[in-house]
Amino acid sequence: METPDASPAYQKLLTLGRELQLAGDVSALLGWDQEVLLTGKGVAYRGEQMAWLSGWIHEQFVDPEVGEWIEAAAEEASGDIEQSNVRHWHRNWTHATCLSKQLVKDLTETRVLAQAAWAEARKKADFSIFAPLLTKSIELTREKAERWGYEEVLYDALVDEFERGATTKKLTATLGSLRTELVPVVAEACGRESFDQSRITSGHYPVSAQEAFNREVAEAIGFDFEAGRIDTAVHPFCSGMGPGDTRLTTRYNEHDFRSSFFGVLHEAGHGLYEQGLRAEHRGQPVGEAASLGVHESQSRLWENHVGRSRAFWERWWPRAVHYFPHLKSLTLEEWMRSINDASLSHIRVEADEVTYDLHILLRFELEKAIFSGELAIQDIPAVWNERFESYFGLPVPSDDLGCLQDIHWSMGIFGYFPTYSLGNINAAHLMRAVCGQDSEVAREMDGGNYGGLLSWLRRSVHQVGSQIPPEEVIARAAGSPASSAAMIAHLRARYLG
Fold this sequence. Notes:
The protein is mainly α. Helix content is 65%, strand content 3%.
């Protein structure tokens, strides 16, 4: 990879970055395979494979000579792209050199083993199966954060990993303010007469029909199936493994196709972002997504602002009835009520827009307590259940409907959950902005055509990558810094209007 007029040190960093990206993408492929195809007896060896890869990548990057290249490149970097790359390399190298190769390998191997233990624990609704590996993962993560350093509390290092510039204090203020604004909306929306969901769940929705419908819709909003695919996993996710290879997963319920459908829309939002990143920047920091809060804005935008809108279903309702004849008994109005019905429920990924962020607040508070030492691992189920019932008024009947429902902790990613709420705030802010900036895009959306929206997102968010901080990505795209105002206005209009 050559960049005209770049310094020799910068060229060396580009070459190394490309090589490490190739190895990282191989690791991502192994991770995808573990969740989708790997047999149970292969988990332990997969852990060794991925640990070796992560250790090798780490070893190449922390070489003192790489630090010298970064220092030399910083003195001669010109242009926004070069300067941004060098800043990222410096930050990443500084973090990496704080960690030993063995710690990196231990974190990776524990993640592989913990994911397998979590899947078994979730299936059996038994937290004790997962607890030992969760304990080890938390201990290793704590060591990583201590080595990195942090602003005020250890949890700062973890949230900054996923959202550059975020701190526990800032997130507590943002999410606390959001909760204050949400509570009356939740109370009023959930107090309204509910739709009889048995009219949906009494039907049969064959997996083959769900697969066909999901693919048709994902392709129509812009997901490129010549550069991606959809598979089945215990917990839905999207994995971008390089230009031309972005993979979505979902899970199926033959009594309610909405679970897989909205899961695919959500993951397709992530996938569109991955497919929209500049291929020529692969292996460079600027070629990566800005942050998880920006990434989540894309998934929540397509899942909720687009996928639960009336304009969307005016186009897709006839196709839904075609695939699922049971829906003939419903009118479009009744269908819209069914998918925008606010109710308190146990499962985060199936929660409606109004109550979703209460699920995030619960996880955020528990993570803070875990890493401050206030919450012991063995007490997580009891504290989760107590706090959940306090927030939602619902007892938690089993661990699989409680603290075992999410894959995140098994993957060793702590500090991730707050980015979901940041994503909701950002999504609403972006949607209000695009409708205000481009009347043609707004008219197209009213007609059920989302090509203009995707083009706007490509220009304003996807192709920007991480050249600028995440808050600035949203502010530049929208014309103003994000706040929860647009999100609360959206919820009020959709659920209380």
